[in-house]
Task: inverse folding
């Protein structure tokens, strides 16, 4: 293991050496002083003897001394940072070596792509003579051989830094899958946490030697400003001015920064706004108005790309994320109506009112007389409505005619409405159409027997039901009164709605002219196509891993991920050994310090043993002196010691004990009843005395869970307290915040500190719904629902609407917003919360499955 | 404190261990009030007090009438008595704290400190002298000053001893009355002087030069100093006053190095004391009380028991 290592004596190493030597000296001085006796007669007598030297050798106790030497050895190995020459200048390294060049956005800090290309060419040039090498760029992931080394500069210049993020773990995985012979992997990257966080290089080092080569020699540490969020406001279609909520964020703090934000589209400036960060502010939020009408008028079909360009006054860290892209489009989904004209007047047209209703609902409608497979005049709609009239043949109205002719994809993921005309008296054709759509892509050329002779509506509905269609509208379990029959074709993701009545305002169906658009909207919402906001807008995605999205067409236009913009850096001790080139070739720094077996735990263990040994020695010495003249002590020491040891192990309750830490609550009464109920149902010993705190204290974090009366109590925490709370959350703490209306700031703050987590409403299949009791739902307080912050594969924060705990304590005075919410239900939710806080999702591990199966049998 | 097989040792000495000074029998007069007779000479015509003139006698005591009658110089003097002035000088040095507590715990032997022994002897002498009617002054010598104890009667001595006994003979256990300079002590007249010390700080010059009184050095050592056989060869023994010295126990025990050096030092110290004064007595905590008292009962001319030896 030690072969090929050279040692780098640095200040820390010398300090460690001095510490070890002084420890040894102190050891022997202490040993010497323990045996000294004062003898004053020596001052008057004259002795011709050798005066004792100041230091003398006394053999110390063996085990502490051994631990001391082992700890010293481990400390020395750790701090002296051994380096290993991996690629010597004069010899050839036969291992296949691969270099990955990281071109993620954070790499563009302080270096241009041409400088990067030059540095990369130099690195590859140094390696080429001594290794069997290959390389790849993170922008495309293609493994290139040594013969392409000369083109690396041009390749990097051409591709530049990509806007998507990079996850080294998946990139390396892809490379090793294609080239498993690689034995030495060199990652030319920075210390960006976003790039390294998924890369378990410690595990990989068992098979492949992993080295880190920093290409950025001088990385400036400025304040990076970027767009955190852009949210469009509700805008009515056709409005000239559109409002956006802009959230800017900075990675640093402490200085006043200002600049402008410009919005451009197709080279035209749509709006400009100034912004300013106060020294203590991390984020700035403001509203911005833009006028997209001048450029959206001609772009009805395609979304308009907006570029939000940040420009700061003064130096700024990362420039690539100063441009943020969003899109803007009139959402209008397309609807294709297939109906034969009946006359000139609109009253004679059976689908006129339907088309008007769809127009009102912002659908872009197109009407054709009949479907023709070769007709390219219409584009794929999201909704196809076909009216079936008596004289129309099936091929003219039925979209199944489009199947099997190379245009099957035109029907995929579409909704198809089959509407009988008011004068339809034979349902055989429409039945045939429904059947062929339901069975697609299987073709049914001939009319099935069950579609024969369907002369009235009831027969038609009966067949549809037998085909598996479900009732829509009408009374329950009375399909004859159904408005339509609904069926899904999973193969083509088709939603087929076969109406049993014409979609016209008519007295018979009870649909007036005013009710028709409302009914159509309800139908669209039910079918999942009703989100017909007039003006749609959104952000281009932030792609965090380019390796998984190489084929994404939006890759080039994607926005820089937040984790890249934050510029968080990984500490050196979590990185692989650093590779650097020197006169002897390439050396790996600290090649032992970062091994999987880190020396630090051993150092701590040995130091602990030394402390215990010294403590025992001191205790033994003190006891020995105290009991020196007491001969009975020697006889009773053993039995007495055993008895004392036994006394220290008092029997403890087998129950888990939990206290309720409450922050900011008004008076909480004694919880004895709650304790009794919890103890009766579970093995948890719940403390009846809640610990109440008016403000944040460290004692709050001593229990596995913490209740906060509202989010504002946590909003106002100072940075130190906030860090303590976050550390507690990351160590496994479980935070419950009640009355979370208006807690957006808390959510944003938590998300900012733990960007890998996510807020989402608690789904019905969450472990909270089944951790002890099986719950059907959680009580909703008005519009507010229960939300959870999911992080590290568990739920760490729960936002509870309303005063849930109050409803548990006082069944009579329940908060009105919960509606009808029995106390038993509240108690079940509370117990489930308690179980999740103690055991998270323990039910997922299926450890109880054998027992459950056994009981079921 | 100490306990041997029936023989009371000096470590158990109290003020109430009485003895009778032998020279009292030479002064059997009823007016005698002290432990020492003094000649207070004055002219008298009583023939009982006549003697022949010897050279140096005061001329005014010559009975000239008698010279005229028989041509013989007759001196007529009258002897009178007064209380004896006794001064007890106790040298309180840090070495009196030895053997210290850690050593005693280590040895696990019931040995008293030298300070305890010094205090026992001092209060014993003071009490006995006060009992005989002497005027007693006790001074505690510390560095360059002398602190006096207020002892006017036997009761005072008994009360103070009781207090010191309760305080376990600690350094701060005895209260002094007033502080005087060494100049004052040097000039103060007395008839008997006892210097109680271990002698580790040397004999002060002014003490050697003090003329007039009968002076006795009661040298107090610890039995552990007299007999160093308790030393352990593997331990270190040090003293850091003046020049720092530290020896291993084996070196001190080898060839009785320590014992011999101690005897040499003691002979030298005794010799230098006896050059100026006549009396020296060496005691330690294992000296029998009876031997100590019998030494004190000897006439002052014989007090230096064996001259250069110690009380057995």
Result:
């Amino acid at each position: 293991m030690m072969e090929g290592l050279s040692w780098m004596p640095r200040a820390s190493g010398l300090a460690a050496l001095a510490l070890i030597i002084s420890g040894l000296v102190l050891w022997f001085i202490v040993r010497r002083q323990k045996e000294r006796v004062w003898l004053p007669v020596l001052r008057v007598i004259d002795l011709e003897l050798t005066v004792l030297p100041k230091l003398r050798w006394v053999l110390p106790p063996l085990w502490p001394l051994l631990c001391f030497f082992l700890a010293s050895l481990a400390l020395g190995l750790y701090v002296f940072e051994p380096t290993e020459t991996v690629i010597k200048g004069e010899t050839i390294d036969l291992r296949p070596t691969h270099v990955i060049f990281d071109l993620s956005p954070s790499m563009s800090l302080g270096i241009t792509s041409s400088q990067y290309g030059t540095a990369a060419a130099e690195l590859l040039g140094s390696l080429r003579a001594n290794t069997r090498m290959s390389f790849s760029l993170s922008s495309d992931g293609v493994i290139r051989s040594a013969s392409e080394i000369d083109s690396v500069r041009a390749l990097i210049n051409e591709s530049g830094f990509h806007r998507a993020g990079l996850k080294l773990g998946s990139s390396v995985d892809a490379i090793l899958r294609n080239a498993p012979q690689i034995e030495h992997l060199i990652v030319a990257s920075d210390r960006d946490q976003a790039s390294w966080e998924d890369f378990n290089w410690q595990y990989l080092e068992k098979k492949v030697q992993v080295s880190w080569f920093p290409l950025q020699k001088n990385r400036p540490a400025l304040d990076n400003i970027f767009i955190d969020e852009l949210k469009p406001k509700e805008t009515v279609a056709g409005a000239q001015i559109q409002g956006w909520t802009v959230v800017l964020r900075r990675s640093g703090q402490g200085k006043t920064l200002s600049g402008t934000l410009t919005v451009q589209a197709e080279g035209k400036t749509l709006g400009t706004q100034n912004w300013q960060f106060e020294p203590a502010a991390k984020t700035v939020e403001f509203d911005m108005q833009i006028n997209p009408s001048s450029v959206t008028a001609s772009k009805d079909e395609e979304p308009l790309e907006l570029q939000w360009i940040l420009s700061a006054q003064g130096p700024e860290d990362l420039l690539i994320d100063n441009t943020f892209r969003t899109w803007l489009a009139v959402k209008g989904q397309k609807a294709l109506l297939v109906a034969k004209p009946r006359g000139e007047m609109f009253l004679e047209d059976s689908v006129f009112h339907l088309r008007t209703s769809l127009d009102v609902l912002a659908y872009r409608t197109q009407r054709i007389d009949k479907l023709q497979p070769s007709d390219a005049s219409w584009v794929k709609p999201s909704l196809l409505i076909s009216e079936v009239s008596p004289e129309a043949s099936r091929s003219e109205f039925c979209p199944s005619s489009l199947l099997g002719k190379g245009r099957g994809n035109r029907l995929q993921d579409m909704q198809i409405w089959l509407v009988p005309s008011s004068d339809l008296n034979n349902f055989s054709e429409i039945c045939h159409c429904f059947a062929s759509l339901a069975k697609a892509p299987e073709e049914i050329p001939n009319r099935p027997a069950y579609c024969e002779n369907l002369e009235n509506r009831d027969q038609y509905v009966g067949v549809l039901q037998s085909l598996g269609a479900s009732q829509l509208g009408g009374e329950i379990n009375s399909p004859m009164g159904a408005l339509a029959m609904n069926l899904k074709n999973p193969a083509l993701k088709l939603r087929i709605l076969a109406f049993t009545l014409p979609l016209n305002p008519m007295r018979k169906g009870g649909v007036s002219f005013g009710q028709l658009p409302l009914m159509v909207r309800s139908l669209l919402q039910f079918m999942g196509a009703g989100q017909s906001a007039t003006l749609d807008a959104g952000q281009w995605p932030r792609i965090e891993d380019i390796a998984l999205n190489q084929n994404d067409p939006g890759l080039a236009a994607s926005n820089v991920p937040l984790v890249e913009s934050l510029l968080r850096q990984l500490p050196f001790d979590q990185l692989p050994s650093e590779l650097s080139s020197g006169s002897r070739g390439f050396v790996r720094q600290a090649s032992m310090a970062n091994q999987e077996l880190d020396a630090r735990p051993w150092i701590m263990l040995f130091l602990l043993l030394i402390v215990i040994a010294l403590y025992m020695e001191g205790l033994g010495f003190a006891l020995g002196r105290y009991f020196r003249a007491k001969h009975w002590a020697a006889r009773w020491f053993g039995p007495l010691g055993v008895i004392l040891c036994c006394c220290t192990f008092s029997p403890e309750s087998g129950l888990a004990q939990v206290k309720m830490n409450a922050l900011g609550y008004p008076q909480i009464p004694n919880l004895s009843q709650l304790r009794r109920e919890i103890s009766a149902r579970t093995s948890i010993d719940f403390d009846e005395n809640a610990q109440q705190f008016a403000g944040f204290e460290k004692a709050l974090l001593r229990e596995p869970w913490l209740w906060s009366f509202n989010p504002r109590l946590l909003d106002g925490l100072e940075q130190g307290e906030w860090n303590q709370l976050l550390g507690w959350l990351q160590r496994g703490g479980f935070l419950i915040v009640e009355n979370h209306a208006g807690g957006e700031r808390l959510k944003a703050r938590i998300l900012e500190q733990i960007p890998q987590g996510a807020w989402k409403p608690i789904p019905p299949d969450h472990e909270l719904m089944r951790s002890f009791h099986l719950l059907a739902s959680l009580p909703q307080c008005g519009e507010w629902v229960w939300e959870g912050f999911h992080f590290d594969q568990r739920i760490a924060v729960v936002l509870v609407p309303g005063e849930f705990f109050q409803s548990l304590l006082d069944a009579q005075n329940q908060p009105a917003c919960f509606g009808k919410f029995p106390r038993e239900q509240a108690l079940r939710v509370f117990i489930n919360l308690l179980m999740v806080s103690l055991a998270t999702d323990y039910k997922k591990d299926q450890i109880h499955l054998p027992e459950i199966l056994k009981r079921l049998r | 404190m100490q306990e041997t097989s029936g023989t009371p040792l000096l470590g158990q000495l109290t003020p109430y261990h009485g003895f009778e000074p032998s020279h009292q029998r030479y002064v059997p007069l009823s007016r005698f009030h002290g432990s020492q007779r003094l000649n207070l000479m004055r002219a008298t015509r009583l023939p009982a007090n006549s003697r022949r003139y010897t050279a140096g006698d005061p001329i005014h005591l010559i009975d000239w009438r008698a010279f005229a009658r028989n041509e013989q110089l007759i001196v007529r003097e009258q002897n009178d008595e007064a209380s004896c002035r006794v001064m007890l000088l106790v040298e309180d040095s840090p070495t009196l704290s030895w053997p210290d507590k850690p050593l005693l715990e280590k040895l696990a032997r019931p040995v008293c400190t030298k300070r305890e022994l010094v205090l026992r002897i001092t209060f014993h002498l003071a009490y006995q002298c006060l009992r005989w009617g002497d005027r007693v002054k006790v001074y505690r010598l510390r560095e360059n000053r002398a602190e006096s104890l207020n002892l006017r009667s036997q009761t005072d001595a008994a009360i103070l001893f009781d207090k010191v006994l309760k305080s376990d003979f600690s350094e701060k256990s005895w209260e002094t009355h007033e502080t005087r300079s060494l100049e004052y002590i040097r000039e103060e007249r007395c008839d008997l002087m006892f210097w109680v010390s271990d002698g580790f700080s040397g004999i002060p010059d002014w003490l050697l030069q003090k003329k007039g009184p009968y002076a006795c050095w009661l040298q107090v050592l610890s039995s552990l100093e007299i007999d160093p056989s308790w030393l352990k060869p593997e331990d270190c023994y040090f003293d850091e006053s003046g020049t720092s010295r530290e020896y291993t126990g084996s070196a001190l025990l080898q060839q009785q190095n320590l014992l011999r050096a101690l005897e040499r030092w003691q002979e030298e110290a005794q010799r230098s004391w006896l050059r100026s004064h006549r009396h020296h007595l060496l005691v330690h905590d294992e000296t029998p009380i009876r031997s100590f008292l019998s030494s004190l009962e000897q006439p002052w001319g014989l007090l230096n028991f064996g001259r250069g030896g110690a009380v057995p």
